[in-house]
Known about the structure:
With about 325 residues, chain A is an alpha/beta fold. The first copy, chain A, has helices at about 15-25, 40, 65-75, 80-85, 100-110, 145-160, 185-195, 210-215, 225-250, 255, 260-275, 300-315, 315-325; strands at about 1-5, 30-35, 50-55, 95, 120-130, 130-135, 170-175, 200-205, 220, 280-285, 290.
Amino acid sequence: MKIAVDAMGGDKAPAEIIKGAVLAVQKYPCEVILVGDEKKIRGTFDEKNLPITIRHADEVIEMGEHPADAVRCKKNSSIVVATKMVKDSECDAVLSAGSTGAAVAAAQLILRRIHGIGRPAIATPIPTPRGTTLLLDSGANVDSRPEHLIQSGIMGSLYAEHVLKIKNPSVALLNIGEEETKGNEQAKEAYQLLKNLTTINFAGNAEGRDIPRGVFDVVICDGFVGNVVLKFGEGLALTIMKLLTEELTANGGAELLGKSLLDSTFKNLYKRLDVSENGGAPLLGVDGYCVISHGSSDARAICSAIGVACDYVNSKILEHIRATL
Amino acid sequence: MKIAVDAMGGDKAPAEIIKGAVLAVQKYPCEVILVGDEKKIRGTFDEKNLPITIRHADEVIEMGEHPADAVRCKKNSSIVVATKMVKDSECDAVLSAGSTGAAVAAAQLILRRIHGIGRPAIATPIPTPRGTTLLLDSGANVDSRPEHLIQSGIMGSLYAEHVLKIKNPSVALLNIGEEETKGNEQAKEAYQLLKNLTTINFAGNAEGRDIPRGVFDVVICDGFVGNVVLKFGEGLALTIMKLLTEELTANGGAELLGKSLLDSTFKNLYKRLDVSENGGAPLLGVDGYCVISHGSSDARAICSAIGVACDYVNSKILEHIRATL
């Protein structure tokens, strides 16, 4: 199992990406190829004893660049080189914490879409008190047509079953109400198509509150909505922690708990909420294994995402998707 | 100041609605007209000494009904009768915690839209550590065109200035990235229109996380997105509280704090997060004062929403909107 890791992508690249790779090769049965500026990578880890190699790539696609244009122009950028290694069967999967748009564009242009898939979708596993809810699309495709939502439903269901090991996963459509007449044109049309689909366990509409509660195994939505919701959740979780610290400081609770217990409580809580703790998100629908990580990923998150990539490849889910569509 | 309150609307109607009205008339300089089934309302409060009267209406629009059809057919439903009282200048404002769709449909069909407004928008004030962020539309119009977003921006800015008393409020467009090239077709087109608008303080794109952080005074979005985000936040806040209780119970923190301190901490935190604590949300864009409350509103939330209705009417903001558009 070989994973091509974009060493230059992410807010904390390359240092945390490299550290994450070092953790991962000791934890999972895999090799990592770090793709990026050799000068910045060489000498930062134990090259002799770890199954990690370096593939030089002297360009980087920055956050502000137009994804597809940048992928076409910067042929020697870390994400393009890493994605090509999957296309050329040098690696089994590619992982990036850099520009999501660039990673998606590289995957679409180089790996191509699976036949029958109109648009790929990022499937983000969200930790809930009941387990995991897979939310897709969380940002690959921001102008979805109803048929794209159906394809997301099928791919998400297969991923939940074969990778997350959930039997007969329930799939719901994110909407503004439970009734099938609710929603915008996109949702109403998608509902009718989903209702008649026999290949998935369609459970009707999900409302926003059903996601954190973990009511459904898979929730499908347009990438614009999914992206806004995920980032809103990120901000809200941090705001709640902040307000709670203020309350406990003001009412003397922080003193009673003591610093160490307070810190460990927050740390554990954050761990249970943090999407990055749960590793990367697969880009479903492209013809190759591609995993996307949060831009703020640290070594632990990268290590976890490499684990996700291994499970993803081992599931051979692309064959299931190809067979179903 | 007379407020027509839909006594039959909401999960806890009519009991909590009536109690909320009783609280409100003692707190705010207003009269309340409770609209609904007289048999269920009469005798439940001190009619002699409180400025509350009853207007009988023998029908109720239920949650599952098609809003516009129901408003057209059920002429004697509580929400239709209450809205007509505003149209006929018998009351200054109408408030409902019933079906949001029905309240919006009644307002559109009976009060009509302000000239120049394509679609009304629900403006929900969200408590943040920095104050309040007004999110609109949170569910009135789920298939917005870019010009509807612009109109929401103008109305939201006026509401923030004249009712929330924020000077030169910043207005941002909810999107998936900061750059103006980001987003779906709707957002990209809206950005260009907003950029050239001189009547508001347009501050660019907001990302999901900027809402709970309180980065902007007004955030505009399509009603589908706004509704999903609000409900997601509701569910996430409750999930976090639940996980936190679990953590503190497991690590002994709950015992150290003691039940009373723990309860008061959560209560205060919830108060600072709870949208309903901040009262109702105005339906902007219709030609009359209409306030919408959460379906789960209790007496305190209804009381607070009546206070919002009073401020809203006192601001004379409809004149400002009419003058600006």
